[in-house]
Amino acid sequence: MKIAVVGGGSTYTPELVSGLTRLQVSDLVLHDIDATRREVVGQMAARMLEAQGFRGTLDVTGDLDGAVAGADFVLVQIRVGGQQARLRDETEPLACGCVGQETTGAGGFAKAMRTVPVVLGIAERVRALAQPDAWIVDFTNPVGIVTRALLDAGHRAIGLCNVAIGFQRRFAGLLGVEPRSVVVDQVGLNHLTWVRAVRVDGVDVLPQLLDEYGDELADDVDLPRRVLDELAAIPSYYLRYFYAHDEVVREQLDATPRAQVVAEIERELLELYRDPALVERPPLLMQRGGAYYSEAALGLVQSLVEGDGAVHEVDVRNGGTLAGMADDDVVEVPARVDAGGAHPLPQPPLAPELLGLVQHVAAYERLAARAAVSRDLVDVRKALLAHPLVGQLELVDELVDRLVLAAAS
């Protein structure tokens, strides 16, 4: 089995490599367009794999065609424009009074405009050169929009996020059980989800978690405890951008942008990776974000290979799973995964207080995916006007100037 990682120079890669030997991988290829990152992370990966007794081959390359040729799986984890582009996404919206965030709101839209064409270009090379039944696993944000664009273009793709596996690990720790015994029933859209059930050996223990650990869980998502109790669900921490928008903007205006924090973490990580004695992922990597990404990604690949029917939280076509959503909407839901793909578990209807927001953002994502491909300014304005965190003509015009036209100039 050949796995190609596009964006293999990411500081995430050692997280991925740390669990690779659980799979029967004969060839691992790390592709990156940044020669320095490629060399540093590639050497780190080589040391880790040697220490783990990896028996396959490792190739580190800047040649995309060579990387994806004959691949069975292509994992995409790129950041178009790097941390400098992320910094713009996080700061320019603030000047308009909007949340500055790299995947949600206007910043997320700017990222989609940069990212979707690049990922679609990669996918076309996968279609031309990889195995006919190759899977594209997308971890590139904004995952929902990128996955929708891939599926709209006819690619064999699944989107993946680490929020659900993070919740799984958290719940398992609180309950004192093994993570694999916990199934998190988290539904919605990427970065717009709610945990409506937590099953341990088939029994829903969410009421117990809320009763015994509600305060701690509310702190985890930075929302008042009463929100969890009234919803009878645990929102992902991204919901704070919607539920406490103005408060978040005030905080962000006074805070160091996350992009600057991450850039410094990445600088330190790359320095650590240069140490020839380092053969394990360093603890600092957990501060980078994307915790448990490797577990989620490799677990998904394993189920697609072995057809074990394990449940994974993935981004796929709705296909009637969530009532009130279009069949072609890309939703994030638990699904049983086998060699044929991901099969969403049946879901009860979303409560009105959840469904209304999901429908609103899904309409925006449809328009954003279209705008990212068409590059038409009318499509751009429609997408921003449809977003619940923007939605005003004056803001739309200013954001188009600041984020879209300025980035293209």
How is this structure best described in words?
By secondary structure, the protein is of the alpha/beta class. Among the domains are: 158 residues, Rossmann fold (3-Layer(aba) Sandwich), CATH 3.40.50; 57 residues, no CATH class. The strands form two sheets. Strands 3-2-1-4-5-6-11-12-13 form a nine-stranded mixed sheet, with helices on both faces. Strands 7, 8, 9 and 10 form a four-stranded antiparallel sheet that branches. 49% of the residues lie in helices and 17% in strands. It contains 16 helices and 13 strands. Helix 5 packs across helix 14. The radius of gyration is 20 Å and the shape is globular. 47% of the residues are buried. The model has no long low-confidence stretch (mean pLDDT 95).
SS elements, strand count: 13
Query: Strand fraction band?
Result: 15-25%
Largest sheet: 9 strands, mixed
- CATH class term of the domain at 2-159: Alpha Beta
In brief, what are we looking at here?
The chain contains 16 helices and 13 strands. The protein has 409 residues and is α/β, with parallel strands linked by helices. Among the domains are: 2-159, NAD(P)-binding Rossmann-like Domain (Rossmann fold, 3-Layer(aba) Sandwich); 352-408, no CATH class.
What labels describe this entry?
alpha/beta, Rossmann fold, 4-stranded antiparallel β-sheet, 16 helices
SSE blueprint:
Elements (H helix, E strand, L loop, with lengths): L1 E5 L6 H5 L9 E5 L3 H18 L4 E5 L2 H5 L4 E4 L5 H10 L13 H25 L5 E4 L4 H10 L4 E4 L2 H13 L6 E8 L2 E9 L2 E2 L1 H16 L3 H7 L2 E2 L4 H4 L1 H10 L3 H16 L19 H14 L3 E8 L12 E9 L2 E4 L7 H23 L2 H10 L6 H16 L1
Helix pairs in contact: 4-5, 4-12, 5-6, 5-14, 6-14, 8-9, 14-15, 15-16
